[in-house]
Amino acid sequence: MPYIPKWIADSMENLLPSKFLNATVNSCVYINHEIKNIVFTADLKEIDFYPGSAVNFRVSANDFRHYTISAFDREAGTFEIIFHIHGNGPGSDLAEQLKVGDNIKITVPGGRKLYNKEKRHHFFFGDETSLSFYAALMREIKKNGQSCTGVLELLKQNIDVPLGLGFEIVTVLKTADCPGQSAISYLQSIDEKERDTILNSIFYLTGNVASVQGFRKVLKQLGISSKNIIFQGYWAEGSVGL
């Protein structure tokens, strides 16, 4: 829900209290100047969670933005989100301004259940906006004794962020003029033995829509069935509030 009239937004908060959480900022840590990890506290006793769960923040009178949860602890009453502070919108501005002790109302977690627990091998593709989902997905994959590999396309200033977060994943530079190409080149460079394993994976394609579409096209050319490709676009050039 990117943009709705103010009176509808007000009514949703007032008339549907069960659909919202009152959250408090517990801690804020900058991984670098663009990536910020925020821990929130809330009453989570009756709240469901799965990798890919997202919450909506009301970032202005008319605007909502959704963000994926990276970690969730029902007993402790805490959840975390890894924000990309890009400075190009109200969601980014809100995330930058949030500080310890701030109270904020958000929607209860929801969205698609993306994780396929039946698959042994998993492959992840994304960018800065995908970090939260990757963190949640990896935690579930490791818990179930499965394997995961993948590639993140990142801006130059963020290329070391995954290492700072403790992620084991290949990183490549994002190319504005050809979205996804660096990640596609990496996929095509993998040796034949490793590629056989990868081609038997479930694929999670997230982040920039143009990059995801290019990557998906190559996967299909390699014979990957659409049923083994999970698509979740988080943003697109020229689109507001995707």
From TrEMBL:
This is NADPH-dependent ferric siderophore reductase. SUPFAM superfamilies: Riboflavin synthase domain-like. PANTHER family: FERRIC REDUCTASE, NADPH-DEPENDENT (PTHR30157), NADPH-DEPENDENT FERRIC-CHELATE REDUCTASE (PTHR30157:SF0). Belongs to the SIP oxidoreductase family. InterPro entries: FAD-bd_FR_type, FNR_nucleotide-bd, Riboflavin_synthase-like_b-brl, SIP_FAD-bd, SIP_fam, SIP_rossman_dom. CDD domains: siderophore_interacting (cd06193). Gene3D superfamilies: Nucleotide-binding domain of ferredoxin-NADP reductase (FNR) module (3.40.50.80), Translation factors (2.40.30.10). Residues 18-116 form the FAD-binding FR-type domain. It comes from the Bacteria. GO terms for molecular function: oxidoreductase activity.
